């Protein structure tokens, strides 16, 4: 009886070893260098993926309550995108450990880029996230951010869950319709990438 299961176990283990392994990530951007209330350098390659038109942002001073804006989900940093109204993109780097990736969830919000740092108010926005595979659109999903009215302290970002965002080589984050005053804030982006 045991010998009849042996070929099945061998087949399953060979199948698993032929597929690339999956590496989970939670991109909270907190290990990247940042200066409070200043937009620093582009993120670039981080945790196995390439972040384009996304910058490290540290709103206010960690541990000090600041006015307005959208707080990071995990202190002190978050990613800021949408500057110059270009799409913010996450992709598989040309050289690196990832073949494809999947997105599970993230926290997001929008604020006005006033260059005043502590006074950047939260701003309503709609975000369209589109996933691509081999240059073709595979999945698209919309997220809506509505700030809490009459709040004077920094507010929490909103949780968003992705549906069907797997087997991607690129994902774009775009405000739709474009709000010329708003910039996109992303934190705790959770997913996994698959090794070749």
TrEMBL record:
Signal sequence: where? 1-20
Per UniProt, the keywords (alphabetical) are:
Signal
UniProt-recorded name of the protein: Dirigent protein
């Amino acid at each position: 009886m045991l010998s009849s299961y042996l070929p099945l176990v061998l087949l399953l283990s060979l199948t698993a070893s032929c597929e690339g392994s999956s590496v989970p990530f939670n991109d909270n951007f907190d290990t990247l260098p940042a200066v409070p209330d200043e937009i620093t350098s582009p993120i670039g390659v981080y945790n196995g993926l390439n972040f384009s038109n996304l910058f490290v942002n540290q709103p206010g001073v960690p541990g000090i309550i600041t006015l307005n804006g959208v707080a990071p989900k995990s202190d002190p940093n978050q990613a800021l995108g949408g500057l110059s109204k270009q799409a913010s993109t996450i992709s598989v780097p040309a050289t690196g450990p990832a073949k494809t990736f999947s997105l599970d969830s993230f926290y997001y919000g929008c604020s006005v880029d006033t260059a005043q740092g502590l006074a950047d108010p939260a701003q309503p926005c709609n975000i369209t996230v589109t996933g691509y595979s081999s240059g073709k659109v595979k999945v698209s999903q919309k997220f809506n951010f509505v700030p809490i009215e009459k709040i004077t302290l920094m507010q929490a970002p909103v949780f968003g869950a992705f549906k069907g965002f797997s087997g991607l080589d690129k994902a774009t984050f775009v405000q739709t319709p474009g709000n010329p005053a708003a910039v996109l804030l992303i934190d705790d982006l959770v997913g996994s990438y698959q090794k070749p």
